[in-house]
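URGENT: need a sanity check before tomorrow's submission.

F., can you look over the ARB-07466-like C-terminal domain-containing protein record below? I want to be sure the sequence and structure line up before it goes out.
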Amino acid sequence: MTAVALSARGERAPNTADIDPAVMQRLAEGPPEGPVPSLRCQGTTAPDLPEQELTPTGLTPRTQQLRDEMTAVFGDQPLGGFAPGGVSQGHGAESTHYSGRGVDVFFRPITEENRRDGWVLAQWLIAHADDLDIQYVIFDDKIWSAHNSRGHWQTYDVPAPANDILRHRDHVHVDVLRGEPQ
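Structure tokens as predicted:
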């Protein structure tokens, strides 16, 4: 997924000579039926992970690392769901945005090209879930969870009112594990 993302930006990508070209093409173009999740990966919930405090950026250090890694591969992207000092409204009651563990990456307007780009990011995120301590990825009515031992994408249970924003059709939501108090 890193090679696909870097190639799409015209950047130098890692050597993929040992990967079947058909696999690389499917990852780059998506499945023939249109932009949908095509990767599944198992994640872990890292039981010994320490809890982190919100920093002045509005993100925890773990979330900032995630942001930095995304930027290194995908370049600057329109982001939201956090603000310096943190956010205290605009999300559901249990949202990880309030604790600085959630980031939204926008793909607006909703077009087939933006959906495909969103799926490239979403699949890159789950491919790196263990390295980046990712807990959830939500996009386009689907959710992936590190808590699902089978690593499958599931249908996202959209809260009412089920609009494009709450369905995550115009943005990829990603959040990191909270960790445990030490």
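My own read: The chain has five helices and six strands. Residues 46 and 133 are 8 Å apart (CA to CA). If you see anything odd, call me.
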